[in-house]
Amino acid sequence: MSFKTDIEIAREAQKRPIQEIGAKLDIPTEHLLPFGHDKAKVSQEFVAQARAAKRGKLILVTAINPTPAGEGKTTTTVGLGDGLNAIGKKAAICIREASLGPNFGMKGGAAGGGMAQVVPMEDMNLHFTGDFHAITSAHNLLSAMIDNHIYWGNALDIDERRIVWRRVMDMNDRALRDMVVSLGGVSNGFPRQTGFDITVASEVMAILCLAADLDDLQRRLGDIVVAYTREKKAITCRDIGAEGAMTVLLKDAMQPNLVQTLENNPAFVHGGPFANIAHGCNSVVATQTALGLADYVVTEAGFGADLGAEKFFDIKCRKAGLAPSVAVIVATVRAMKMNGGVAKADLGSENVSAVEKGCPNLGRHIENVKGFGVPVVVAINHFHSDTEAEVQAVKDYVAEQGAEAILCRHWAEGSKGVTELATRVAELADADQAQFAPLYPDEMPLFDKIQTIARRIYRADDVLADDKIRAQLKEWEAAGYGNLPICMAKTQYSFTTDPTRRGAPTGHSVPVREVRLSAGAGFIVVICGEIMTMPGLPRKPAAESIRFNEEGLIEGLF
Amino acid sequence: MSFKTDIEIAREAQKRPIQEIGAKLDIPTEHLLPFGHDKAKVSQEFVAQARAAKRGKLILVTAINPTPAGEGKTTTTVGLGDGLNAIGKKAAICIREASLGPNFGMKGGAAGGGMAQVVPMEDMNLHFTGDFHAITSAHNLLSAMIDNHIYWGNALDIDERRIVWRRVMDMNDRALRDMVVSLGGVSNGFPRQTGFDITVASEVMAILCLAADLDDLQRRLGDIVVAYTREKKAITCRDIGAEGAMTVLLKDAMQPNLVQTLENNPAFVHGGPFANIAHGCNSVVATQTALGLADYVVTEAGFGADLGAEKFFDIKCRKAGLAPSVAVIVATVRAMKMNGGVAKADLGSENVSAVEKGCPNLGRHIENVKGFGVPVVVAINHFHSDTEAEVQAVKDYVAEQGAEAILCRHWAEGSKGVTELATRVAELADADQAQFAPLYPDEMPLFDKIQTIARRIYRADDVLADDKIRAQLKEWEAAGYGNLPICMAKTQYSFTTDPTRRGAPTGHSVPVREVRLSAGAGFIVVICGEIMTMPGLPRKPAAESIRFNEEGLIEGLF
Q1: Average pLDDT of chain B?
Q2: Active site residue: B96, B318, B319, B459, which one?
C-alpha cells in the first residue's frame, strides 16, 4: 500500500509520449494536436470520423450521496479504466476538466487518487489546453456585444433591466458577484446592475459539452436567451450576431483532450459544466469519440446518482443518443458509516451496525439507477481502516437488493486491485442486458417532469412552487421550450433539499425557488435552495502558499 | 507582384513542422513543447542555456511616425529576417503577440503582410499558445486576493479608495471601464469603485516581457504596488502574498513561442505590452533566446522611433543589457507625402515636392536613433504606386543626413526583394560600429529624465507639469524609485502631443497629465494626453461578421 501523496505519485509517473497513447486508440499522429509532450487534442476531422463508428460500450460511474468521508468516484473511474485494459480490453476513460479558480481558494486536486490517477496533474489544475479560457472569451464577447448594442442605439429594444446574460471569469472573486457597470459618463454606456459567475457556470460551458459538432455548437450558441424586451420578447445571441465569432473562439476547445492514466491508458478530459445549474458531465464529443475508438468507455457524472446519474441519463444520454450498458455505483464503508450517523472523527473504529444503518442510501441509488434500465454493480472503494465484517455488511446488503458489490483496491494497487470489478463490468456490458430509457418523455409538461424527478428519484411527497414559477414554466411551454429536459439544482448531500438529511429519507417535499431557461444548452434549470455561481476565497487562500520551491516544483497547489 | 490578400497568402503557406524550424536554431525536439504542429514553446531549461550564449547581433526595426498610409514595420522586420536567411545568414526574428480583444472590433491582422508574414495567422489572432489568458488569470488573481484581504479584516489597513490595481480582460468592453463592485450585502464585501483594463495594458504583461527568468518574474510581481494605506504607505503584491501563485500561473507563458515565416524561417512571437503605458516590445526572454541561437536577430519596437525606439533603448536594452548593432528605420513614399501635407486620397499621384517636404520627419528620427550610438539604415518599403523620382527623393534626402536608404520589395517578392537591405544590415552589424548608450543615466532625477526625452527626442522647448505631479515624482524618488527609467505615453502620430502635427515640429511643449508607478515592470509612466486602457467596440463590430464559412474557413477575422 502506498502512502505517498497523490502529487508525489503523479510526479513519479512514467508518462509515455502522447502519440503512443493516441496510437493505442489508432489515432494517427497528424490528427493528434500536441500540447507539450503529454497532452493533445484530437482533430475535428478525426473526431467526426471516429464518432460515426459507435463501437464501444458505455459504462457510467456514479456514487452514493457524497459525504465528508469521500467516495472516490473519479478514482474508481480511472481505476476501472486501467482494470479493463489490464484484463485485455481496449478501454478509455472520459472525465471532466478542472476549474482553475477554486484552486486558489482550497487546494486543487488530482484527477483520481493514489495509484489511479490521470496525469499531468499540474497542467490539469492550471491552464491545461486552454479550453476554459476560450469559453470565458466566448461568453464575455457576447456580454460586450450586448452592452455595445445598447450603446449604439439599442435597435433590438432590449430592456436593460432584463438582461440575463452576465459575464464570467475562472476565478473565485466574490467582489464581482454584484456590480454596477458602465459608470463614468456617456462614453461608457448606460449604467446597469449585473455581475460575474465562475466560468464553469457559463451556459457556453454546458453548450460546449452537449454540442455534437461546430455546426450544432453555433446553432445552440445562437439559441441562448440573453435578454428580454419590455414586452418580454426573448432576445437571443443570434439577434446580437455573436454566435459565429463565439464558434470561431471555441473551435479548438471543441476538440477533446487526450491524456493518460498512471498506467499509460488513454483518458479523455474534456469540458466541466457545473453539476448543479448544469448537467455535470464531460463533453458529448469526448464520450462519442471514445466510443468510436475503444470497446469500453468508462465515464462519470457529478455528485451522487440522484443528481449526477439522473442528469447523465435524462440530459446527456437522451440528447446525444447514448445508451449506457452498465452503471457502477461507488460506495465506501466510511461513507456508509457516516450515513449511519457516525461522526467523521469516529470513522476509524469498526461499526458494522452503523454500516448497515447507512446502507439504505446506497440501496435507493441502486433502485433508482436500475429504474433507468441499466444494470448496476457496486464498487466498494477500499480504505485501509475498513474491516472485513464491515465490507461484508455492504456486500450482504447489496446482494439483498439484487445487485453485486465488489471490493476494489485500485487506490493502493492500481489495476491489480480492480480486476474483479473490471471483469464483472465487462461481462455485464457484453451481455447487452441494458434497456436504457430516460425517466420521462420529452412531451411531458415541465412541471410534471419536475414532479416525476422529485417523486421517483428523491422520493419526495411533492414539489412546492408558487404561481409565478408555474406561470413561468407555462410561458416557456408556450414559447416552444416545453420539450426540454429538467436540470435540477439542489444540494448533493441528500436526497432531500436539506443537506443534513443523510440516508434514505421520505416524507419530504421539494421547494422550487427559481427556474431558469438555458435555451442553448437545452434544459430548464430548477433551483431548489441556495446555489452559488461565483465562489469567494477563504480567509487564508491556497494562493498564498502556492509557489515554486527550490527544486522548481510547484508547492501549495495540491 | 501578388494581389492576394494577406490571409489568402498565409493559408497557402507551405508550413514545415515546427520541429524542423526549431532544428534550424539547433533546438532539440525534447525542448520544443509543441502546440499543434506549427507552434511551440521553447522549454525553460533550454532558454536558460541559450540565453547565456549571446552570440547574435541585434537589429532593431523602427519607423517614422505612423500615418494612415501605413509604414509596414512588422512586414519589414519579417522581410529582413527572411532576407538575411536568403543571403546565407543564420537569422531569427522577434515580434509581439497580438491582442485578442480588438479583433472583435476592427478586423485582426497579419503578422507582417504580403509575402513577408509570420504564420499561422488564424491562431496568432485567436488564443495562440494561451499566454495572454495566463496573464489575465495572474492579474485577476491578485485583484481577487486584494478584495479578499479586505473582506477578511484588512489586516494591512488598505485604504479602499486608494486601490490602484484594477482587473483585466482581453476584450473590448467599455461597460467595464468604470464600475462599483461588491454590491449585494455583507457576503460580497465592501462596495468600491474600480474597473477593467484590456489585458495588454496589465503591468503583468510588461513584467513578463522584461523579466529575465521565473525568479526575476516573481520578484518583479512581488514589487507591484497595488494600493496605499491612509498614511499613503505603499502596499505591494508581496504584502498580499500573490506573487508565488502568479508565477506558477505564468510558468508556461514565460517560455517564448516559436513559429515560422512564409519562407520557413524561425520567428519568436512572445509578449505584447501596450506601446503607450508600457514599453511596447516583445519579451526580453525571446530576444535573448534568439540572440543565443542565431547570428542575427531582427526585432521591432512599437509606434514610431520617438516612442518605440526610445523605450526599446532606454527601458528594454538598458534593463536587459542588450546592445543593438544596427537600427532600420522604415519609411514609405506615401507616408513621406502625408507628412508633406498630401491627403490620403491623393497619395496615388506622383508628388516629389511633397515627399521632400515630408522627409524631415524621417530625418529627425535618423538623428535621434544615431544619438543612441546605433548605426542607421532606412528601408523604403515599396508600394506599387511609388515613382522612381519619389523614391530617389527619399534616398537623396537620407544621404544628406549621412545615412543610406534602400528600396525594399519584400511585401511583393519576399526575401528576393530585400537582399540589398539584408546585405547592408549584415555588413553594418559585422563592422561592430555601434556604441550604444541610453539617453540618460539611471541616477538622473525623474523630472530631468522626462525633460531630457522631451527636449532631445521630441525637440520640445519644455515639459509642463503642475506641482502635484512634480511632488509625486519627488515622493517616488524618496521611496527609492528614482533610478527607474521613464515610459512616455503620448500620441504616436507626432513628435508633439498633438496628433495632427506631422513633420518635424519645434517650439512645442509637453504637458504631463498624470504619472504612474509601475514598480514591478520597473518604470515610471508619464501620461501626456488621453490614454485609453479599455477600448470599446464600434457600431458594427467585426465580431458580427466572424464565422466559419461553408468550406470551414474563418471569415471576417481578417
Answers
A1: 96
A2: B96
Give the pairing of strands B167-169 and B179-181.
Answer: unpaired
Q: Is A268 assigned a catalytic role?
A: no
Partner residue facing A548 (CB), from B167, B248, B543: B248
Euclidean distance between CA atoms B415 and B85, whole angstroms: 8
Instruction: Please report residues of B whose CB lies closer than 8 A to that of A242.
Output: 543-544
**Is A70 labeled as ligand-binding?**
yes
| Predicted confidence (pLDDT) per residue in B284-299, tens digit | 999 999 999 999 999 9
Measure the CA–CA gap between B395 and B390, rounded to whole angstroms.
9
pLDDT at A388 over 60: yes
Structural domains of chain A in order of their starting residue, each with its CATH number: 6-128+253-430 (3.40.50.300), 131-250 (3.30.1510.10), 446-527 (3.10.410.10)
Predicted local distance difference test score (pLDDT) of residue B108 = 77
Instruction: Please name which of A93, A59, A73, A518 lies closest in space to residue A290, comparing C-alpha atoms.
Output: A93
The DSSP annotation for A344-359 comes to GGGTTS--HHHHHHHH
Residue B421: band (very low, low, confident or very high) from pLDDT cuts 50, 70, 90? very high
Residue B200: enclosing H or E segment and its boundaries?
none
Please say whether the beta carbons of A179 and A149 come within 8 A: no
Nearest CA-CA partner of A528 in A462, A464, A447, A467: A464
CA distance B47 to chain A (A): 15
**Adjacency order of strands within the sheet including A158-163:** A158-163, A225-229, A234-236
In the chain, the amino acid numbered B379 is A
User: Which chain A residue is nearest to residue B253, measuring alpha carbons?
Assistant: A127
Q: How many C-beta atoms surround the C-beta of residue A277 within 10 A?
A: 26
Angle CA B33–B34–B38, to nearest 5: 145
Complex prediction ipTM:
0.97
Give the chain A residue whose CA is nearest to the CA of B105: A145
| A127/B134 CB distance under 8 A | yes
- Residues in chain A, overall count: 558
Active-site residue flag, A46: no
- Sorted by sequence, the CB contacts under 8 Å of residue A471 that are 6+ apart come out as none
d(CA B14, CA B262): 7
CA distance B44 to B53: 15
Active site residue A73: yes
Confidence of residue B1 (pLDDT cuts 50, 70, 90): very low
Which of A165, A196, A303, A312 does the annotation list as catalytic? A303
Question: What's the whole-number average pLDDT of chain A?
Answer: 96
